[in-house]
Design brief:
single chain, about 500 residues, alpha+beta, 2-methylcitrate dehydratase PrpD, 60s Ribosomal Protein L30, Chain: A, 4-stranded mixed β-sheet, 10 strands, MmgE/PrpD_sf_1
């Protein structure tokens, strides 16, 4: 059972009591000692496997090399044992482990997602919560509870409050959710979590320019920064330091000046006291390394590659029109009005936010690969560029309605495609959700998460280390205090060259 918490802006003289503030209500959910349902614990394990898979596949990509080098300059702090960095066995201060591992998880745009009023990758909660758990020697049960809270709060905020409409980056929901998850992990009181949530929000609001135009490497760093800020916010709150109040509802607060303004009103669905935190079950992962709205389009393009191979040759094609939701059209489609989305020299981060590019390559290749599909030579292939430049998108009101539907059975992230051939033939098809979606053709279960991990870890991790990790993570709820270090994965000798990392200040 959920309770719709009503949120609006209050003038200072109205003096909104803490009990009525959204940050306080979030803190109460986090402090509720309710047990985690078995199916939620099962999904937590799946998502830890998923995060590990995509992080290991990123170990030698430039943002990870840089973030790892920064983390290694900050050894374990005195308050605990420190936390571990993916790929190596070094202990660092937990906020820096959250930073390095958060960048590794986010870099390939390849882990889980939840889309509603706002967009999110709720798996970004795991690195900071896991880092603190390793640092303080938590149990597997503690970690499961903390992650369940992180997912719950982020999903609930995403269902109710749009950030992108006001060009605020989606990690503004991640800072509070990660702080709340850490509060649950540590068993903190409501007041402390309340202050941590407020500080985490205050320090993680930023513009969406990180996902506009020529997208930079900061895209991978943004959620890691939010996770790092959440760890630091909890530390300050535990030391008695307070946050701006009310952080959401104040007349100079986030809603009044960054979001819908002084007349704003929201209803945030939050579980009532004693209600299990189940929001992770509403989320879904990616089979392909690309923006989530691209998942279904890759699957449709692969199907058309098999069924209509004539459409893969630009010499045969006059135009390809993709009709889809407002978000897909305006953020990763031609409606974004970003010329970079059609530029063969664009960055990988830009190409994975270009439906015209992704659809063209998947249509021609019939597959999608997290490295090869973005290779410079692949993007520059003349026949690909010719086909790619014939792809445009437009918003279809029905697909927009389904995108925003609260009915999980009709919520959709796809659309329809019309391929007009030079001979006048018209090919039409559509897809509502990705094949890996819970309602898709091949829903992901534990077997698929493990397959994804094995495929992405096979080159960088020894077989025995792969088996050790998979055995350990599937026993997560049973792990005792201090055993969470075993959730780290060590790369094979020679995979990581720490000496080659770029130099900075630290």
């Amino acid at each position: 059972m959920v309770e719709l918490h009503k949120v609006r802006v209050y003038r200072s003289e109205e003096n909104l009591p803490r009990e009525g503030q959204l940050a306080y209500r979030i803190a109460r959910v986090a402090a509720d000692p309710v047990e985690v349902a078995p199916e939620v614990a099962e999904m937590v394990v799946n998502r830890i496997i998923d995060n590990a898979a995509v992080a290991i596949a990123s170990l030698n990509r430039a943002p990870i090399v840089s973030a790892r080098a920064q983390a290694l300059a900050h050894p374990a702090s005195t308050g605990g044992r420190g936390a571990l960095v993916y790929g190596i066995g070094n202990r660092v201060s937990p906020e820096w482990a959250a930073w390095a591992n958060g960048v590794a998880v986010r870099e390939l745009d390849y882990h889980d997602t939840f889309l509603a009023a706002e967009y999110s990758h709720p798996g970004d909660n795991i690195p900071p919560i896991l880092a603190v758990a390793q640092h303080v020697g938590s149990t597997g049960r503690d970690l499961v509870r903390g992650i369940a809270t992180g997912y719950e709060i982020q999903v609930d905020l995403v269902k109710a409050i749009s950030l992108h409409k006001h060009k605020i980056d989606h990690v503004a929901h991640l800072g509070p959710s990660a702080a709340a998850g850490i509060g649950t992990l540590l068993g903190l009181d409501v007041e402390t979590i309340f202050q941590a949530v407020g500080q985490a929000l205050h320090t993680t609001t930023a513009t969406r320019q990180s996902r506009k135009g020529e997208i930079s490497t900061w895209k991978a760093h943004a959620p890691a920064f939010a996770g790092k800020m959440a760890v630091e916010a909890v530390d300050r709150a535990m030391r008695g330091q307070t946050s701006p109040v009310p952080i959401y509802e104040g007349e100079d607060g986030v809603i009044a000046w960054l979001l819908d303004g002084p007349d704003a009103a929201y209803e945030v669905p939050l579980p009532v006291e004693g209600e299990a935190k189940r929001a992770i079950l509403d989320t879904y992962t990616k089979e392909h390394s690309a923006e989530y709205q691209a998942q279904a389009w890759i699957d449709l393009a692969r199907r058309l590659h098999r069924e209509r191979p004539e459409a893969t040759d630009p010499a045969n094609v006059a135009h390809i029109l993709i009709r889809t939701s407002h978000h897909t059209h305006h953020v990763i489609g031609s409606g974004a009005n970003d010329p970079q989305k059609y530029d063969p020299t664009a960055s990988r981060e830009t190409l994975d936010h270009s439906i015209p590019y992704i659809f063209a390559v998947a249509l021609q290749d019939g597959i999608w690969h997290h490295v090869d599909s973005y290779a410079r030579e692949r993007a520059a292939r003349p026949d690909t560029v010719a086909l790619w430049h014939k792809v445009t998108t437009e918003e279809d009101p029905e697909w927009t309605r389904r995108y925003h539907s609260l009915d999980i059975a009709e919520k959709a992230f796809g659309g329809s495609v019309v391929i007009t051939m030079n001979d006048g033939t018209v090919i039409e098809d559509e897809i509502a959700v990705a094949d890996a979606h819970p309602l898709g053709a091949r829903p992901f279960g534990r077997e698929q998460y493990i397959q994804k991990f094995r495929a992405l870890a096979s080159e960088a991790v020894a077989p025995e280390e792969i088996e050790r990790f998979l055995d350990t993570v599937q026993r997560l709820p049973e792990l005792r205090a201090g055993e969470l270090d075993a959730l780290n994965i060590i790369a094979k000798d020679g995979v990581i060259d720490l000496a080659s990392a770029p130099k900075g200040l630290f």
